[in-house]
Design brief:
The structure holds 2 protein chains of 2 kinds. Chain A is an alpha/beta fold. Helices cover 29% and strands 23% of the residues of chain A. Chain A has one domain: Metal-dependent hydrolases (TIM Barrel, Alpha-Beta Barrel), CATH 3.20.20. In chain A, strands 1, 2, 3, 4, 5, 16, 17 and 18 form an 8-stranded mixed beta sheet that branches. A 5-stranded parallel beta sheet of chain A has the order 9-10-13-14-15. In chain A, strands 6-7-8 form a 3-stranded parallel beta sheet. In chain A, α8 runs parallel beside α10. The longest helix of chain A has 17 residues. Chain A is globular, with a radius of gyration of 21 Å. Chain B contains 11 helices and 9 strands. In chain B, 50% of the residues are buried. Classes of the chains: A alpha/beta, B alpha/beta. Chains A and B meet through α3 and α4 of A and α8 of B.
């Protein structure tokens, strides 16, 4: 018996195909069976979207789920709830768990947990070096065979240039992607926030923006030398974006992403030592924030990822320099990105592309598209609806959000994974 | 039968590498080797061709099979063979190497068989001594007698070298065997492929006249000969491959990967083998496919031929002083 669901009366948005039209979408057995003007269909559950946007479910290419090892901060079930409440249908976990995901058995563990939890699809990266220690390469070939999507040492840069060269070169043997945290550790060491006037006034040790540029420039050279595919995570500075723009103009196989906090906040958010505004790389200057938006506009930045990094209160209620870096972001990813649309920086399709088909393409995932035959991973959202972020109401087990009280526009109404509604907005 | 009396024309004083040898010179060495194969199978394996000649095996790097092979070759030709092992770590480089050469030269050896962990060291030494020098392996540069014995083994089995497709697989980066074999096989008209993860290939290896592959199934497709190389972990500075398990899974030769080659493809390995690392035990021991034992046998014959032709070219007048 075929399970059919008809989503009627939606604003169909498919950024990959440039579709933005009123219409319906039919799901059969978890896959998209038809879209466009579809007449009444018998024996189908019908959901009236009342004109709301229906887009591919978001693909969040950078989240920390804390499982295994720190389930008191987040787990796959709680992270999964936060994801679907945010319209995310596929998320990719970083390997900085305890133990580090650098072994085939751990990649298989994530796949099994994802199936058991059954909310958003959870995929994983594997560490690029054993134990993320930056010395010996992991079994990239076998790990990729087990399902690892790419190789990264998460929030730690692969510092040694020879190791990075070999990682890119070895990965290229199997046509695999290496993701780098772009920060020269010797320059960032001991730093707590962006170097500059604000840090000076607060008396906090700074991380110079050039720490990002130096690592990006080095890695672009190594990518050119090896021909390996490089993805630069969460770029935050004007200079690094310019370097990537130039590299793309030279047709290097390089991509990059940023996170909402790098275009929604700047270093002044640190304000009075607010550790919820401590992230890595640090929030930058207003000039850098604007450059991130420019990079998104001109296509230099390919994707927006939440950089979801749950921390419990004990990790954040510390003197600023001692506090952990990172903020939760799964549920705020869509509304913060839609700010770029509402403020006139990006078209709706461009904004959604950075959350759907573009990250999917970087990772070669069959996701992020409204296409007949594709998995019915969908988000239905009210583009205009205003709401106020309430950190305590977020589903993540940790509540470390710097956006508490921020008014935003754009509310997820329903999230669908493989044709099944895994989240329906109650308010 | 090798009598060593035929007129030879080998215009080189030393055998430092395959690079620079002509097809005729290689053929000459292989033809001479051929006769010694028969001699080595006789009860009486000894000749007096090198009577009165002194051969010094000077090894700056540990070796069992190559040193033994040269020692047997020298003794079967009637020469006096002395083995000298010098641990490279215990001596200083450069000056001491030349000092060693000068000391040995004072003893008037006719042939020095030299192995050294540094590329180019054997050539440097050859410039300072009176006798002939045979390179028994210098760093990651050349190992000419290995390439010659490989060629002899293949030629005896396949009848030719011309037109054969040969895949050299594994740690090309650190391998002197690979460089000598690439030079020899190209000179003799074979087609050479290299198959390895990118981290184990030196830059611009394709400029040496090889086709480059990173996938065993593609690299071994329709080849006649598969030369497996040892993973030279003692030369690794850092991490070139993540693990033995992963290396064997993707680049170790087993029957599944062998299936891509021609049905009569033959397997070679310069030894010592790491079973379960670059080669599966069953494949290594397959008497129908593996030439590994024959390679060792041919080694002695080839080294006899090299000693023969080099001593023939040596002047019979003793050096002045």
């Amino acid at each position: 018996m075929t399970a059919r669901t008809l989503f009627r009366n939606a604003r169909l948005l498919d950024p990959a195909g440039g579709l933005d039209a009123r219409g319906d979408l039919l799901v059969e057995d978890g896959r998209i069976a038809a879209l466009g003007k579809i007449g009444p269909i018998g024996a189908a559950e019908t959901i009236d979207c009342v004109g709301a946007c229906l887009a591919p479910g978001l693909v969040d290419m950078r989240v920390e789920l804390r499982e295994p090892g720190a389930e008191h901060q987040e787990s796959m079930p709680t992270g999964g709830l936060a994801a679907v409440a945010g319209g995310v249908t596929t998320m990719v976990a970083l390997p900085n768990t305890d133990p580090v995901i650098d072994d085939v058995a751990l990649v298989e563990f994530v796949a099994r947990r994802s199936r058991d939890v059954g909310l958003a699809r959870i995929r994983t990266y594997a560490a690029a070096t054993k134990g993320m220690k930056g010395r010996e390469l992991t079994e990239m070939g076998l790990l990729a065979g087990a399902g690892a999507l790419a190789f990264t040492d998460a929030g730690q840069a692969i510092a040694d240039a020879q190791v990075m060269r070999r990682a890119l070169s070895y990965a290229r043997t199997f046509d695999l992607l290496v993701i780098q945290h772009p920060e020269e550790p010797s320059l960032a060491s001991g730093g707590a926030m962006n170097e500059g006037e604000v840090a000076t006034r607060l008396g906090l040790p700074g991380i110079p923006p050039v720490a990002e540029l130096i690592m990006v420039e080095r890695d672009l050279r190594l990518a050119e030398l090896t021909g390996g595919r490089l993805h630069i995570a969460h770029v935050s500075t004007e200079a690094a974006i310019a370097a990537i723009r130039a590299a793309k103009a030279r047709r290097l196989p390089v991509t990059c992403d940023t996170a909402p906090h790098y275009f929604a906040l700047n270093e002044t958010a640190v304000g009075d030592y607010r550790s919820f505004a401590k992230v890595s790389p640090p929030l930058r200057s207003e000039w850098d924030r604007r450059a991130v938006i420019t990079g998104l506009k001109d296509g230099t930045i390919d994707a927006i990822a939440s950089d979801h990094a749950p921390h419990d209160q004990e990790s954040k209620r510390l003197p600023f320099a001692s506090a952990a870096s990172g903020i939760i972001g799964l549920e705020t990813l869509l509304p913060l990105t839609l700010e770029l649309y509402h403020n006139g920086h990006l078209g709706l399709s461009e904004a959604l592309a950075a959350l759907t088909c573009q990250p999917a393409d970087i990772l070669r995932l069959p996701a992020g598209r409204l296409a007949v035959g594709a998995a019915a991973d969908l988000v239905i959202f009210d583009l205009e609806r205003p709401w106020r972020i309430d950190a305590d109401a977020l589903r993540s087990k940790s509540k470390n959000s710097p956006y508490d009280g921020r008014p935003v526009q754009g509310r997820v109404l329903r999230t669908v994974v493989a044709g099944r509604s895994v989240f329906v907005q109650q308010d | 039968m090798g009598t060593g009396t035929s007129s030879l024309s080998f215009p080189h004083r030393h055998l430092l590498g395959i690079e620079g040898l002509s097809p005729d010179e290689i053929t000459l060495l292989l033809d001479r080797s051929e006769s010694y194969v028969e001699q080595n199978r006789q009860v009486d394996k000894k000749q007096s061709l090198l009577r009165g000649r002194t051969i010094i095996n000077l090894f700056f790097e540990s070796s069992t099979r190559t040193r033994t092979s040269f020692e047997l070759a020298g003794k079967r030709l009637g020469g006096d063979v002395i083995n000298m092992s010098v641990q490279a770590s215990s001596i200083k480089k450069g000056e001491t190497l030349i000092d060693t050469a000068m000391t040995l030269t004072a003893m008037h050896p006719d042939v020095l068989v030299v192995r050294h962990p540094e590329s180019g060291a054997v050539q440097l030494l050859s410039e300072k001594v009176e006798g002939a020098v045979i390179n028994a392996g210098d760093g990651s540069h050349e190992h000419p007698t290995q390439a010659l014995l490989d060629a002899l083994t293949v030629r005896r089995r396949k009848g030719r070298l011309q037109g054969l497709v040969v895949a050299i697989c594994g740690d090309i980066l650190h391998s002197r065997v690979a460089r000598s074999n690439i030079a020899l096989l190209n000179t003799m008209g074979a087609r050479v492929r290299v198959v390895a993860p990118r981290t184990l290939l030196p830059a611009e290896i394709e400029r040496l006249g090889v086709e480059v592959f990173h996938d065993m199934a593609k690299g071994l497709k329709d080849v006649d000969i598969i030369m497996m190389l040892r993973l030279q972990t003692e030369r690794f500075h850092g991490s070139f491959v993540p693990s033995i398990r992963e290396y064997f899974h993707f680049f170790g030769l087993d029957y599944a990967k062998l299936a891509a080659a021609k049905p009569d493809a033959l397997i070679m390995h310069p030894g010592p083998m790491n079973r379960g690392v670059e080669i599966d035990t069953d494949v290594a021991d397959d008497i129908d496919r593996s030439l590994i034992r024959q390679q060792v046998e041919m080694g002695v014959a080839v080294r006899m031929a090299c000693l023969e032709v080099l001593t023939q070219t040596l002047s019979n007048t003793p050096p002045v002083k």
